[in-house]
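Data card: per-record layout.
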Amino acid sequence: MRKLLPVLLVSSLLVPLAACKNPSERRTERAADTARDVLALDGVDSFDRIAAAGVLMSSGSDEANEVIVDALTSGAKLAQQAAIGALLNVPGDEAIERIATYADQEDGNLDSVLQALRWAPRRDARRFVLQALERSSDSTRVAAFDAAALSGDAELIPAVLQAAETAREEHVRGYAVYAAAALGSDQAYGFVERLLGGTVFEREIAAASLGFIESDDSRVALQGLTEDQEIGVRIAAWASLSNLGEAKATEQLYAALTQPDPRIASLAAGAMRRASPEALHAIAERAGDWSTIDLYAAGRVLEAIGWNPEADAQAALQRALASEQDELLKLQSLWAVGWRGRSEELPLAEANLDGGSNAVRVMAAWAVMRNQHGGGPAMLAH
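The structure for this 382-residue chain is written out next.
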């Protein structure tokens, strides 16, 4: 009996030691275990494997590093973008340095980085935006302006304004103007004003940009754009006016969202990324169980909720995660839970770690990790 005593003493400590883990550590462990479970299965979709590897990296483990390496060296652009996206969600400088090494390896890699930054913007990824503005193709520069606008990094304003002044191609110039307005440049209105009488694209960009500029001139211009002959321009103007507190514009935006024409509904849903938190909450509540809105448009509304952490939307996200919902809504809702970084929404992700498809489980694991790290706002704070 005396020989068994040390064993008994050690084993008796196991439960108390496990119980010492704080809730965050336990959630991290569950998310990592979910990622491991998915990676251990045969025939898992390559993008789910990449996402699962990213979850493990976010948890501090490099055990699935070869999945990321294989994706980066695969030559397949979408797989490379997914791997970059996984790295962008890993806190710390090491991930950014790995991305920098990849970006410099060959022409075209920087484009993959900028495309990924449109979904996972980071303030410490400024160097890639600046590189793209200096020497890239028009499509990569457009992606760079989008990433700049999402980053909120005011230090990018001089480079963006220079592009707005000198760019010859319409889309490059338009997205530069939009980024300048989104970043809060005090010179943005002058550039927007030049677009008001331009092409359909330029008028739509002007309508979107004016929502970031709080002034009487902006409101007057937006009211004029609500009478535009093109529905896309009118929708962009309604979203901007909604962001500026115009209740009537929110009603018009909701009416467009519930149109039977999926194109109009999708345009309205995309524009909701620029609506106010109050408008997003009101529209999401009116959406109910999401069955009255085109499926793709409903997914874009959930995306808009994800980009707007100030919107009160926990109930709407929960309804999108109901068992009978389409997987698209579940995935978009889980992304929103992760990116918003609101701790009270964490149980929505935790509840999906152990059930559903591999894609849903991995997205739930990602949402747990991203939410615990402060969501998107934490990535944009430094």
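Known properties of this structure: Confidence is low (pLDDT under 50) at residues 1-15. The radius of gyration is 23 Å.

See the next section for split statistics.
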